[in-house]
Design goal:
75 residues, 3 helices, mainly alpha, globular, 45% helix, EF-hand domain-containing protein
Length: 75
């Protein structure tokens, strides 16, 4: 197996934070993705708190010490 084939296989079996964020943004129905990072942080944080999404969002760590939950994975 070549390194490229191995990389493709790994990508098929693992879910990365970018994959999750892409899926969330793809589900936006009003054809406008918010450009305010704070809004995106709040929404993803709220989804992570929801039992339904906890498993898929477990890779997102949030710092709640500021006014808005911040996640390095969303930068």
């Amino acid at each position: 197996m070549t390194k490229l084939e191995l990389l493709k296989e790994m990508h098929r079996t693992e879910v990365y934070p970018d994959d999750v964020l892409t899926a969330i943004l793809a589900s936006v129905t009003n054809n406008s993705i918010p450009k305010d990072p704070a809004l995106i942080y709040r929404v993803v944080y709220a989804l992570k708190e929801d039992q339904l999404f906890q498993e898929v969002l477990e890779q997102f760590d949030f710092d709640n010490s500021g006014l808005v939950p911040f996640s390095e994975q969303l930068v």
